[in-house]
Amino acid sequence: MSTPDLIEPEDGNKDDNLGLYRRATQNGAEWWRVSVGDRPETYRLEHATDDDENGAGSVDIDLVVDAENLRAKLKKWRREGFALERDAPEATDTPTRIAFMPELQRASARMLAAKLRDAGNADAGLGSPADDASAASVRIGNVDVRCGSAHPLVPRVNPAYLFPARFNDIVADIVENRRVMLIGHTGAGKTSLIEQVAARSQHGVLRSNMNGQTTVGDFVGFWTVKGGETLWVDGVLPTAMREGLWLIVDEIDFAEPSILAALTAVLEPQGRLVLKEKGNEIVAPHPAFRLFATANAVGAMSQFRHLYQGANLMNEAFLDRWRVYLLDYLLPAEETDVLIRTLAPHMTRPLATTLAAIAADCRAAFAREDLSSAFSTRRLLDWAELMLRTGDPERAAGPAIYAKVSPEDAALIRGIIRHHIAPAA
Ligand SMILES: Nc1ncnc2c1ncn2[C@@H]1O[C@H](COP(=O)(O)OP(=O)(O)O)[C@@H](O)[C@H]1O
Ligand SMILES: [Mg+2]
């Protein structure tokens, strides 16, 4: 096939008009992709929008045009604010490179359609007998989560909890029974994300913190003597596996090697636990069992290891058995909403906006290492609540913030607060 003669070459490169033309929209971005058409002298144009609610959009317009038509389109897009995304200069766009994303989008759309069809079949009673089509489910973000049943360990729903669209992938992983590890700073919302999914879908949650006295006995189980009888007591892991609970292994980067070894066995979705101490009894996972881990200083967070003293590096083979998500603090606009919803009806938007901005500044100072203490959403909510009661941000900051940090940090935070809040006249 002859190379099509491309229009208006700017610097002699014939592929100059090929590529992705993008413009920002209110909720995300909109793009046109120009690639080489199947026939000579033609161009394929694909259009899609990516927005917060629906994530990466699928292609909604897909057409083939000639060079003259393309020229007109390019002019129109330029007027509309679309700009060609330049790639690294050395990367000349090969056809496979350009074809990858549209190809992937088609494959992904087919997979989604197949999933919907399967779900439809199950609803119509066409699923395999093992499918319990009558089981209730609840929608979290854009994901349907199968409900469990009432259990004393189901967490309480926090009605003020916010599920931003970026959590959808995590919720989908939970549904698919993937092992999910959430990494991020203290108070970024790792534990509460799992708990709030569990609360809404009625699954009991067990937590086990590795940064403390948790022994392999607590985790896996141990023998004990009671009334002259020797009894086996299941640890949290077999308990969760047998009862179909969700187990959160908090601060997994502090776990002892023997606990990690026990965990490794159950990292595969159907992975079974062998209780060596109990005559090699095998524990198979209940279908509702889910396993989560949280960590502060693993992987993409390892640059902050010195802030979380004693954390272990996790080896890559172990990490590869997890989907690892980096959870950052909520954005100021999201945290503003959480403040208003949590402290309704007293918290007003102007107050909440200022408080969220103070939290954001404190976190920026922490990231620059000017501050040595993290500023969690929990701390912000607590300070705000006390401030409403006392009517005095400075007095409220005493027990909610200053007393918990070093005098240097307290002075710096006080400065940030003063920067945002002028003293009462
Ligand atoms: N998306 C959210 N919506 C509402 N509140 C949140 C959200 N994320 C975090 N929080 C608040 O922040 C607090 C701290 O989160 P937590 O899950 O304990 O953090 P981590 O486990 O990362 O240390 C929670 O108790 C909750 O009140
Ligand atoms: Mg936590």
TrEMBL record:
InterPro entries assigned: AAA+_ATPase, ATPase_dyneun-rel_AAA, CbbQ_C, P-loop_NTPase
Gene3D superfamilies found in the cross-reference section: P-loop containing nucleotide triphosphate hydrolases
* Any single biological process term in GO: ribosomal large subunit assembly
Q: Name one Pfam family in it.
A: AAA_5
Keyword list (alphabetical) reads: ATP-binding, Nucleotide-binding
What residues does the AAA+ ATPase domain cover?
A: 176-328
Entry's Gene Ontology molecular function annotations: ATP binding; ATP hydrolysis activity
Q: Quote the SUPFAM superfamilies the UniProt record gives.
A: P-loop containing nucleoside triphosphate hydrolases
Gene Ontology cellular component terms for the protein in this record: preribosome, large subunit precursor
Q: Which family does it belong to?
A: Belongs to the CbbQ/NirQ/NorQ/GpvN family.
Among PANTHER family, the record links this protein to: MIDASIN, MIDASIN-RELATED
Question: This protein is called what?
Answer: AAA family ATPase
Tell me which species this is from. Answer: Paraburkholderia monticola
